[in-house]
Amino acid sequence: MSRSLVIARVGRKSLHRCWTDAGKPRDWDLYLCPYEEIGPQEDLDCQIGDVIPGPKWTGLTKLLNAWPGWRDYDQIWLPDDDILARQDAITDMFEVGRALDFHLFAPALHETSHYAHFIAMRNASFFARRAGFVEIMVPCFRRATLEELLPTFALSTTGWGFGLDSAWPKILGYEHVGIIDGVTVVHTRPVGGFRDADLSRRVMQESDDILAKFECGQRMVTFAGIGPDLREASLTPEELLVELVRGWQYLFDGCPNALRWLFDQQQCLFSASPYPVSGLPTSPGSRAKSGS
Fold this sequence. Notes:
This is DUF707 domain-containing protein. Strands 1, 2, 3, 4, 5, 6, 7, 8, 9 and 10 form a ten-stranded mixed beta sheet that branches. The chain has a domain at 88-290. The chain is built from nine helices and ten strands. It has helices spanning 56-66, 87-99, 143-153, 164-171, 197-213, 237-247, 249-252, 258-266, 284-290, and strands at 4-10, 28-34, 47-48, 75-77, 83-84, 104-109, 128-131, 140-142, 177-187, 222-226. It is of the alpha/beta class. Helix content is 31%, strand content 17%. The protein starts with a strand and ends with a helix.
């Protein structure tokens, strides 16, 4: 049996069909958790669960608590249904995440993606990054990590999941969390507001409540860059910042104000004292140089 599993909340217009190459072997399994009737899927090598109406995290919470099959896998990816990805990219994502011992991670978003957070976008300077945030759009979990974090899913009573992606790294002590720039997917749907003002208020309040519960914020920090040899680059905080700017130049060309955002997020690394976040290592540069 495969060691890796993709679980997707899907509907009739979802992009899950592009994730597999017909007739080409793959070493991960696909489980569809529909939020509406999706019709026959005979051409897909996958398992289809019962229809669970509602938003993404409502369905995933119900599925993961009711279906024990996911516990037979080492890694579980929970992508949105509007993600354009190829079979080989998904395979590579699982392999790199395993090689780097990431417990919570994601592929980077390709330059053509619609996005909400700069940190999720591909940084051309690195093959991967150790980071303080993995967006709820495309998170991948080591099984034991998903087991640990699963109780938090129920905190999103709206089912939208806002705030969970800030709580998860905090719970994990900001260790073994990463983004893989060398493997990209495309987010095809524009990021916009809610049509329902009351739903928007409830989702944002829920996010605030989750952040308050875990005494955390959105830590959009890159702690270290990793090269294609899968080794952590030995960089000072200043050198790391320079490389991040270079790697995201395509974003800053369109939004120069984002340079301030990047500096504000990275400035916690410029202190000689431990990071101002509980559980973080004291220096990514010294960690890289020591080889630990």
